[in-house]
């Protein structure tokens, strides 16, 4: 929800730097999800597991730092332009959809 709103904001204001930041964030999320899947398949005492965990840790730290320093600031500046619905409302709706899909998958 957050990144989709920022992406919309970047298009609305024709802000290529913000758009590139959002695309980079999507890619980082994809990379971290991939690393988590791979870690789950490896022996946690092996060198490959340790290398992937280090990579995940460094990527996560960089991602969080960039969010806190850049993206959250951009979102705050453009929050009033995102429309009548708040990001919190959209997040809660998405969370409920995800939770109901997850519950259905386990029944």
Can you characterise this structure?
This protein is mainly α and 107 residues long. It contains 4 helices and no strands. The longest helix is centred in the middle third of the chain and has 32 residues, at 47-78. The mean pLDDT is 81. Helix 1 packs antiparallel against helix 2, helix 1 (2-12) packs across helix 3 and helix 2 runs antiparallel to helix 3 (47-78). It has helices at 2-12, 16-41, 47-78, 87-105.
Question: What value does the average pLDDT take?
Answer: 81
Terminal CA distance: 27 Å
Tell me the number of helical segments per DSSP (H or I, 4 or more residues long): 4
Element order: H for helix, E for strand: HHHH
Structural class by sheet pairing and helices:
mainly alpha
Unreliable runs? none
How much is the radius of gyration in Å? 17 Å
Q: Helix amount, in percent? A: over 70%
Largest sheet: none
Shape: flat
Number of strands: 0
